[in-house]
Amino acid sequence: MSDTNRDQPTSGGPMEKVADIASDIGEYIRQQRSTAKISLRQLSKLAGVSNPYLSQIERGVRKPSAEILQQIAKGLRISAEALYVQAGILDLPTGGPVGDSIRADAELTERQKQVLLDVYESFRRENAAAKPEQAETTDQEAESKESA
After folding, report:
1. Among 60, 67, 73, 126, which residue's beta carbon has the most beta carbons within 10 A?
2. How many CB atoms lie under 10 A from the CB of residue 99?
3. Are residues 85 and 97 in the same domain?
4. pLDDT for residue 137
5. Looking at 71, 92, 113, which one is the last position of a domain?
6. Using an 8 Å Cβ cutoff, are 103 and 114 in contact?
7. Rounded CA gap, 34 and 28, in Å?
8. Contact by Cβ (8 Å): 60, 23
9. Within a domain: 87
């Protein structure tokens, strides 16, 4: 490869996407740490990773493994799933803002979050199943009003 090729910008190749993901996850971790009012040093101790390594993750220089993300999640007392989604390891879960809020609530245990999400999803499924019936009822009511 010649030097001229290396100097040209890439057009969204795989390496660029990895760099974007690393930057995004680092920024997300920094925001969560800031929200939790935990210093970089405190989080590195809680997560069991070195201070310089955590700093590199936050700056987007390093992309952490799923294992490291899990340790950081424990240190931040947030869902590891949230970090996995942010890092591109998992797909974005369904449930929209309600699900996101439940997952982000630092005062709930992982078990409590999962139970709430399960109940919420069961209500959504129940309502989705009832929608065709509601539409039929509305159509029948409209027809009876028109014929009256």
Report:
1. 73
2. 18
3. no
4. 58
5. 92
6. no
7. 10
8. yes
9. yes
